[in-house]
Every structure is written in structure tokens, then in C-alpha cells.
Amino acid sequence: MSPELISILVLVVVFVIATTRSVNMGALAFAAAFGVGTLVADLDADGIFAGFPGDLFVVLVGVTYLFAIARSNGTTDWLVHAAVRLVRGRVALIPWVMFALTGALTAIGAVSPAAVAIVAPIALSFATRYSISPLLMGTMVVHGAQAGGFSPISIYGSIVNGIVEREKLPGSEIGLFLASLVANLLIAAVLFAVLGGRKLWARGAVTPEDGGAPGKDGTGTTGPGTGTGTSAGTGGTSTGTGAAPTAVAVRPDHETGGTEGTGIRLTPARVATLAALVALVVAVLGFDLDAGLTAVTLAVVLSTAWPDDSRRAVGEIAWSTVLLICGVLTYVGVLEEMGTITWAGEGVGGIGVPLLAAVLLCYIGAIVSAFASSVGIMGALIPLAVPFLAQGEIGAVGMVAALAVSATVVDVSPFSTNGALVLAAAPDVDRDRFFRQLMVYGGIVVAAVPALAWLVLVVPGFG
For residues 446 and 169, what is the distance between their CA atoms, to the nearest angstrom? Predict the structure, then answer.
């Protein structure tokens, strides 16, 4: 048995054990990386740790740390109420606002994980407060980021168009952008309909106070029937009614920074936190600074100024999610180091039937991208498609667009950077349940989208 095949089978075993024995998959993946890397790939510790996603580790820790502070001092509650006022109380519009916001950020040049890191914590705090399915809100954020991700001036678009030009293939910048935009918009529409969007429309307009106002710790206290923290994937409350949460009793102004039932007032700590969030956006988008390091720095500044509000924030960092994601990606790094991914791609590229090779490459892009860099996978797969694209039976524009869509829509997987950020950002949910929901949804996307992209973009022979 070849080393590459062994490494794939070990990955399957890791999934099976994690699913059936409730063992943290990240810990299993670290053990697998050690075993396969040492015994099969002949790697030393440095070779194994070369795949450790240090940048993602810092992003996950930094962003969840900063937004834990924001939740603790009531800033996220203020943002949620502001969002409700912005859409005149139509809660059903908020998922689309988040979709459009992340799409706009990536379209003008933000890296997709950076846009998701900025928007997801706010979006999911809103979902918790108004009993919206976290799965709906989280996937709307990720698909929004991918919808704008291939504009001609975006990071992904620039990279893929550069690869196409380097390989001397026909290309269409607008065609690539529209393919991703339309695909993600259609997926978002289906998700909205399936995951409770119709109930949200039926709910009508609400006032910000319908979700309950935050207590002194900013976490929010709700009355009976709110179901906060237990509605993942249901799109409703724990009673299954889909009704908005009830308001709570009025407490004095000095405890809440405003009178509950009338709004949330900005306090110095909340103003500083809002300034920190704006600084995070400016630093990441305007100066191309690392989102994780910037978030950690801002969190430390806030913790120093208001230690009481920030005391519990470190404990609220999503450590189990950090272990999960970093372990799996370290194992994927071992697979890349030993050539497993290249081995699989070259095997498919050598198939003599261009249409069959095209759909298999789309599936490889989707499966691998669910665990690794989407752009990195496209950079590897587009050159593999050159030989059969040169035969003229497959349109290059359609093939590149299909690969781009297949490799990025799967970023909802909890093992990808975007999916991991969504998982880590969700407050007051059963994280194991939410992880399973993201994993199941990611599996559905991996199974269905590559075939649909191939059918719509490749088979007609565009380009």
C-alpha cells in the first residue's frame, strides 16, 4: 500500500473515531500527524509542525478574545440593537445585511477570513438574541464573503486571474466574479428558505427590546421561552414557536448603561470597544495588518483599561475549537508535505476523458479545500487542468470558474478558516451540536456543488 493511500485511510479513521467516541478531532489529528509523519513520511518534529497553522491559531484566539470582551461589556448588544433599528425592526433582513456586508468587504479587497472574522461575531450575537438559527446566520456570512470574493480587485480574484494569465489560458474576470456571486447568492436563498427565513418574515417587525436588554455583564437575560443557546439549526425557540424572545424587567440605569426596555446607552468602555472594532477593520483592510495579532493587541489594551469587564474573556476564548482546527490542519500539512494531494490530483489529471477529469478535479478541489487553503488548491489544480484544456474539448473560462466555485463554497466547513471562525464566534450555543451541523452542511455542499458547477459551467463549454 502506498504511503499516500495510508495517509488518506488514517484520516478516515480519525473521522470515524471522533464521530463515534466523542473524542476531540483535533487531538486525534495531532496524534495521527505524529504517527503518519514519523512512521510513514519519515518526517521529524519540525517537518510535522511545519503544517501547524500558526496564523489561524492567532486569528481564532485574538478575534474570540476581543469579541468576548465586547460581549462582556455589552458592546455587541448595542450593535445588535443598532442593526435592528437600521432595518426598521425587520429581523428577517439582518441575515441579508450580513451577507451583503461581508460580500462588500471581500469585493473591495479584504481577505475572506478577515471579513468573516469582523462580521461573524456580531452576526451570531444577533442570532442568539433574536432566536435566529446560528447555522443560517453563520453560513450567510461565509457565503456572503465568497459572493464578493472573486471581484477583479479582490484578493482571490487577482490571484486566480494571475494564475490563468501565467498558464496562458483564456480568462474572463467578470465571468469568474459573476459565477461565484450567483452561486453563493442562490445557495444563500435556499438556506434562508430552509433554515427559518419564512418564520422570520412572518414574525414581522420587532423593537430592539424584544430580544431582552443586557444585564450588567452584557450577556443579556431573557424571559421564559427564549431558548437562547439551544436553537442551533432550528430557526426558532426552544419551544418551537419561532416567536421573538420576551423582554425582561426594568433595572436601574446605573446597572445597564440605560434603562432596559428603552435602549442601551454607550458607556466609555463600549465606546472604546467600538473604536477597537473600527481599528481592527481599518488595520486589516487599510494597512493589511494581521487580523489575529491586531485583535490580540486591541483586546489587551481594553483588558488593561477595564479589567473587571475583561476578567472572564480569556476563559471564553474558544479553546476546544482552536484545538480542533489546528490539529486537523496540522495533519493536512503532513499530507501536503508527503505529496498526497499532488498524487491525487495527478492521478485524476491523467484520465483520458476530459469531462470526467474535469468533474473529478472539481471534487478534489472541494474536498481538499474544506480542510486547506482554497486559493492554494486552485493554484495547484488549475495547472493540472492545462493538458486537457489544451485539447479544446473543455472551455477554460467555465473550468476555472467551476474550480473557483467548488473550492470556495466549501469554506462553510468547520475545518476551514471561515467555518472555524463562525464556530468560534457563536455565543451561548452547544458547540458540539453546532460543529456537527456545520460538518453535515459542509458535507452536503462538497457532495452537491462541484457536480452542479461542472454541469452549469463546464459541460456547456464556456470559453
Answer: 26
